Amino acid sequence: MKEPIKTICPKCNKEYVGCPSLSRVDNETLICPDCGTREALESIGVSTDEIEKIIGIIDENRPKNT
Question: CA-CA distance, 34 to 12, in Å (whole number)?
Answer without folding.
Answer: 9
